Amino acid sequence: MANFDFDTTWHIDAPINIVFDTLTDSLHWPDWWPGLIDVQPLATGDDRGIGRTQRFTWKSRLGYSLRFTICIVRVHEPSLIVGAASGDVAGLGSWKLQQAGQGTRVGYCWQVRTARPWLSLFSHVARPLVVWNHQAMMSDGRLGLVRYLDELGLMSAGDIPRLEP
User: In what order do the strands lie in the sheet with 103-114?
Assistant: First the structure.
């Protein structure tokens, strides 16, 4: 199995509660996050979202697909969402939000290991490509979120960068 420890930071010019609400509404992520093909609800969880379980299908820039389930295990509104992953990858993902002036600093930590033999082999051989792919998809997510919030009038985005094809 290959282990990965990814840390991503986004700066979003929107209030923390808006960013938190958008990130907790993962059923709508495919509306704004390129590469996310589908999200299927499996369990609703409690009133804070603990126990909410969803199946995600991602199509990487490298052409392979990843399917995994995320079960929310911890939530502290509006600053933390932690989910346990199982499927093609297994581990933990955590969104950490902090108010930064009028905007929000978003940190995402994805600590996973590959769980499928083909993916483990590919990840060992092509590790730099896997890292590049993750970084590119996270960058696409940030740009998609900025555009989405701007279209809803929830942020002041002066010059919104274009997504690369």
Answer: 3-12, 103-114, 89-100, 80-87, 65-76, 53-59, 36-43
